[in-house]
Amino acid sequence: MPDLDATIIRGAIALICASVVSVVAWRKRLLDPGGAVAASFAGTALVAFGGWWAGILLVAFFLTSSLLSVSEHDHPSRTWQQVVANGAPATAFAALALLLDAPTLLVSSAATIAAATADTWATEVGRQSGATPRSIKTLRLAPIGTSGAVSLPGTLASIAGSMTIAILAALLAPLASMPVSIGFPEQLVIVICGILGSLIDTFLGAVFQARYQCVTCDMRTEEPLGHNPGHELVLESGASWLTNDAVNLTASGIAGVIAALIVR
Ligand SMILES: [Zn+2]
């Protein structure tokens, strides 16, 4: 049985910390108002279920990803959908670890954060490196920022991102009196599943993600909400409900499931 009192007390303190972090992030325009509310809830739930260890890993993902995208002056604030896509899988595995009394599922929780980090680092570094990515579907060169296309700098960044979360997970584990040890095998699982998650993300993005063609300005976009609202978009390929956020959520979730299967 989980220690309910400890969980509630930790959750209450986490609510205060997560709210402070979210308000600061909103003031710095890293989160929009909906994103800040979602981040408060996600951070609180993750720490309540998975402990401070998991919460710090998620903050590390968020901070490093924001730092990497800072140089892009027009980078929009993160929305609640993005926060849910990046935080929900980690929270779900942490909740299962506590409720099923299966602490090894915390490795899955870390693996989902490694996957989100790998994917975001790959996107940001790939975009800023100026290297032209290649679509994994057609193997043709694709415009920078295209989902389902990879470049060498982006791929190296995804490996570095996944490794960073795995190393941090191992460094923090002794301090957090974890119910599971994060030794070298667990670190390896986190790194590999993080990279796998990023690859699955690329694959899903290439094959299934919604892509739109603008009738008005002839541009292609994957972000209908970010496009000029006066313009008329038609769905060119993929499924309209399968947004970039839904792809991220699915890919991280699969990374967590694979980690759970290996660690068992
Ligand atoms: Zn347009």
Provide the list of bound ligands, each named once: zinc ion
Q: Evaluate the radius of gyration.
A: 18 Å
Task: Give the uncertain stretches in residue-range form.
Answer: none
Helix content: 55-70%
Q: Biggest sheet, open or closed, and with what strands and sense?
A: 3 strands, antiparallel
Termini, distance in Å? 20 Å
Structural class: mainly alpha
Principal-axis shape: globular
Average of the residue pLDDT scores: 90
Order of helices and strands: HHHHHEEHHEEEH
Number of helical segments with 4 or more residues: 8
Short précis:
The chain is 64% helix and 6% strand. The protein has helices at residues 4-27, 33-50, 52-69, 80-99, 105-129, 152-172, 184-207, 244-263; strands at 134-135, 149-150, 211-214, 220-221, 233-237. A hairpin with a 5-residue loop joins strand 3 (211-214) and strand 4.
